[in-house]
């Protein structure tokens, strides 16, 4: 006696549920990517409407060997240690409260060294400018 099955097994694979899952994942990633805000240093870019006189400038330079140099106004740059930078900048600020600090760094200097100087300026509320030296 041969028994027959009443239902047939469908060998086709339905992609409808798979496309639903992919569509939901796409929406999820699109929504979450717009919510993520990267941490960044707040940089105030200059917006000049007219030419103004340059304020006294204090320079901090970091060379490729991670040596620090500082100068105020037209003084010649002198080499200092990292710990001597903060007192130098504070003395310069006491001489001229309208000064701003220009930071020059070699291309090979790790970014964490630049951030250390930016943190000193941020803690003391100094106006900071990231600058580059003209190529010779």
Task: Please explain how this structure is put together.
The chain has a 5-stranded mixed β-sheet with strand order 3-2-1-4-5, with helices on one face. Strand 2 (68-72) and strand 3 (78-80) form a beta hairpin. It is built from 3 helices and 5 strands, in the order αβββαβαβ. It has helices at 16-35, 85-95, 111-123; strands at 57-62, 68-72, 78-80, 100-105, 127-131. It has 136 residues and is α/β, with parallel strands linked by helices. The mean pLDDT is 81.
Topology, pairings included?
Layout: H1 16-35, E1 57-62, E2 68-72, E3 78-80, H2 85-95, E4 100-105, H3 111-123, E5 127-131
Parallel strand pairs: 1-4, 4-5
Antiparallel strand pairs: 1-2, 2-3
Low-confidence residue ranges: none
From the spread of the alpha carbons, the general shape counts as rod-shaped
Q: Helix share of residues?
A: 25-40%
Give a count of the beta strands, DSSP E runs of length 2 or more. 5
The major pleated sheet works out as: 5 strands, mixed
Report the C-alpha radius of gyration, rounded. 30 Å
Strand content: 15-25%
Mean pLDDT: 81
Series of H and E elements: HEEEHEHE
Order of strands, widest sheet: 3-2-1-4-5
* N-C termini distance: 100 Å
Q: How many H/I helices?
A: 3
Structural class: alpha/beta
């Amino acid at each position: 006696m041969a028994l027959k099955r009443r239902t047939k097994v469908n060998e086709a694979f339905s992609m409808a549920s798979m496309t639903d899952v992919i569509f939901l994942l796409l929406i999820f990633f699109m929504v979450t990517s717009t919510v993520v805000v990267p941490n960044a240093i707040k940089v105030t870019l200059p917006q000049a409407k007219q030419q103004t006189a340059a304020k006294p400038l204090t320079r901090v330079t970091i060379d490729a060997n991670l040596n620090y140099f500082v100068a105020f106004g037209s003084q010649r740059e002198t080499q200092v240690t990292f710990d001597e930078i903060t007192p130098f900048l504070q003395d310069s600020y006491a001489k001229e409260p309208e000064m701003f600090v220009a930071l020059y760094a070699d291309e090979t200097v790790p970014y964490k060294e630049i951030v250390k100087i930016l943190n000193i300026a941020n803690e003391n509320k100094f106006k900071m400018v990231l600058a580059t030296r003209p190529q010779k």
